[in-house]
């Protein structure tokens, strides 16, 4: 399927792939990872409004990580393409994890978004190492989760230094 390009019609027939593609956001023709991260923002906003934040959001992120292994495995299988760029469930889940540890303020969320996307795109060690060696749904989910942990660490250090 080297010449296959998924579209919204293809996703509508495959509910797990629809999730894998971040409700369709992974279909973006450029920067699908960045567009795929965006759904995490309104999802987190809604969850914060109904009282799911902090450690509860982190726990939810871990549950979504485990489901994400299945979602991403299934989506890869359906596509016939390994680690396809449009599979963005991992970005959504990782961003939710980052936001679980950020103040509920637009400036922190913007910084978290930008820094997470930077780590996910540049893939410093060990993210690049993990990405190259661990495949399938677990590999897809793992490298973004490590990028999320880097983001949390850097922003927490920054907060500690400026407060």
Task: Tell the overall outline.
Answer: globular
For the largest beta-sheet, the strand count, sense and barrel status come to: none
Mean pLDDT, to the nearest integer, reads 93
The number of distinct helices, counting runs of at least 4 residues, comes to: 9
By oligomeric state, this entry counts as single chain
The fraction of residues assigned to DSSP E strands is under 5%
Terminal Cα separation, in Å? Answer: 53 Å
Q: Give Rg in angstroms.
A: 15 Å
- How many distinct beta strands? 0
Order of helices and strands: HHHHHHHHH
Q: How many domains, in number, for the residues? A: 1
Given as residue ranges, the uncertain stretches (5+ residues, pLDDT < 50) are: none
Summing up helix and strand content along with how strands pair, one would put the structural category as: mainly alpha
Helix residue percentage: over 70%
Main location: membrane
GO molecular function: metal ion binding; phosphatidylglycerophosphatase activity
Subcellular location: Cell inner membrane
Catalytic activity: a 1,2-diacyl-sn-glycero-3-phospho-(1'-sn-glycero-3'-phosphate) + H2O = a 1,2-diacyl-sn-glycero-3-phospho-(1'-sn-glycerol) + phosphate
